Amino acid sequence: MSGIGVFGVGSPFGDDRIGWEAIRAAQEQGFAQRHGLQRLEACDRPGTHLLALLQGLDSAIVIDAMHSGASPGTLRRLDSAELESLHGTHSTHGFGLAYTLSLGKMLDALPPRLVLYGVEIAAASPEDGLSDAVAQAIPQLLQAIACELAGDLSTNAPACAPSL
Q1: Disulfide engineering: 82 pairs with which of 31, 78, 137, 138, CB 3.0-4.6 Å?
Q2: Distances, alpha carbon 83 to alpha carbons 8, 89, 99, 118, 161, in Å
Q3: Which residues have C-beta within 8 Å of that of residue 72, sequence separation ≥ 6?
Q4: What pLDDT was estimated at residue 91?
């Protein structure tokens, strides 16, 4: 397999479902067809399943919730170099995205080009739904990813300057 994949990581709890909701919105907009994607999928929490999805792709974009102290709905783009410096504190998952990507690198199971779009969230408890601030970030997130896909992922440079 080769090509480009976009993956939304998440869980069913509160704002942590942002990856799933972003993928659902992208599917509704025909993202896969418009951007020639090999894969456009939501997956439950990072882990070895995500590594299996990334296997064999040339490029991948991963969407995940994050906690960094910024306002909910804030977007952050991390390129390959920045991903190497991630620590588990940014992920909302126990077996976090940073650990998954580190394991993938050790196993040589990552695409040559990988970009993460993190969305700052407020709450991830079972009682909460997707907050308005996080839901309102989805159009900007998809626009940033569309710019990324129109650009040259090999240089980690989006085709247009997304306002993150």
Answers
A1: 78
A2: 16, 13, 10, 11, 20
A3: 15, 120, 121, 122, 131, 133, 134
A4: 45
SS3 75: strand
| Residues 111-145: tens digit of each pLDDT | 999 999 999 998 666 677 889 999 999 999 999 99
> Per-residue pLDDT for 20 more than 70?
yes
Find the farthest-apart pair of alpha carbons in the chain and give their distance in angstroms, rounded: 41
- Report which secondary-structure segment, H or E, holds 155: none
Tokens of 86: 């991630």
Residues 20 and 27: their CA atoms lie apart, in Å, by: 11
Three-class SS state of 20: helix
Question: How would residue 93 be classed by pLDDT, with cut points 50, 70 and 90?
Answer: very low
The closest alpha carbon to 20, from 8, 37, 5, belongs to 8
Going by pLDDT thresholds of 50, 70 and 90, the confidence category of residue 84 is low
- Cα-based distances in Å from 31 to 5, 12, 79, 100: 11, 23, 21, 26
Closest CA to 68 of 78, 79, 59: 78
